[in-house]
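The following record pairs a protein chain with its ligand, S-adenosyl-L-homocysteine.
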Amino acid sequence: MENKKYNIWTIGCQMNEADSRHLGSQLEAMGFSLTEQPEEADVMVLNTCVVRQQAEDRAVGRLRYVSELKKRKPDMCIGLMGCMVGMREAPRLQKEFPFVDVFMPPSDTEPLMHHLLDMNREDEMARMEDLREKAEQNAIQDEEYILPALRRNNTVQANVPIVLGCSHACTFCVIPYRRGPERSRPKEDILAEIRKLVAQGVREVMLLGQIVDRYGCDFEEEYGLAELLTDVNAIPGLLRIRYLTGHPIYMSDRIIEVTRDLEKVMPQFELPVQAGNNKVLEDMKRGYTAEDYVSLIRRVRDICPDNTINTDIIVGFPGESDEEFEDTYRLLAELELDKVHLAKYSERPKTIAARKMEDDISEEEKERRRIRIDELVEEILGRKNQRWMGETVEVLVESRHKGKWRGRTPHNRLVFFSADEDMTGALVDVDINFVSPYSMQGELKEVKVPALPRSPDLSLVPMFHRPLKVS
Ligand code: SAH
């Protein structure tokens, strides 16, 4: 069994990255080891995203590649996971991609675990009985929180889902159809997971949910995101906490206050507005107006003046006129937010928009609007980032990139600096001497928390594939 290998290809959101990490841990608990070479894998999993057509196309492209691998290596077990599979797409996908052995909905690794145990019992009964016992004894639940071997003491930041699914049904969005209804994870599980991650070197966690500020709404006890942040803040050894994605209508004063007051919670607010025109917002069924959003941003800035506020925008939503788009432009110009995750509308199957509205904005026009917002944001960020020029900022170092160390400030700004020794996981002060809209550079001033203790040969191990974009 020592020689059995797995490979996981991941695209999409941080939730998928977290799911791939859990899956990797479980496979390792069963005796598989990671390979970065797909053709070497005995188990190959594609963890997919379908939030936009482009992501789905990439997954289909990868499936074609994997089908070629399987022709050469028929024993290879192929697993398809994530939003492409969703809660009920498996029968359809099975017809289209008959070479896939196992289908797994988002965050649900059980089908693959069962498949591997069953498959191997037929083939190699004795050897697998051993493993089955091991998997059962170790209670996979718990093993999940053990990082894959190559990432242990080598992973500075980890994503931790706290709310699964989504029940909001924005008209453009396929996620509720693929990830199922909203449910919060028990706080005990979340805290246990974070404690385990910290023991393995993790220094920053990103708490995840489609609407993360609704955490606990399905609990009987009064326990929400603010309370969870307070409990996570108390975990020794953890340095930083962030959370995403907030929905504007659930962002309470209490959450904003807790973000301001808890030392480990970074002052980062992820509040997708999607559009700045009220008719478009109504058609999207977002549940707020542009004016509501403006007053929310004021509230965040009043309560927590030291902040960074990021948003998501969709351009070219069905029926969005030029003038309506300009409202979005004006809103962003007025609010001067920090980062904007920008997407061109992409029609998604079964969504209300796909069923009831016509995708009537041309690709050229969507691109024109995208570029217009992109340029605006670049101008705003370039200007806003000047504030850091000559300042000393605190940086949590994540990795090495093109000969420099790369980390993030509390405001989630990327910072690059040079140092000879291994800095992975260190918390350092950097004097900023160069700023641009999307990153900054500086000189190392002081190491406040030393780098992760780890063997040097681990420093070059590649991570799982980076996600396409945030949230
Ligand atoms: N739950 C979050 C967003 C999750 S999806 C929220 O409520 O805002 C991440 C981002 O993808 C969205 O914010 C949106 O900007 C984008 N997105 C979702 N569906 C899309 C679609 N059909 N076309 C283009 N962008 C889309």
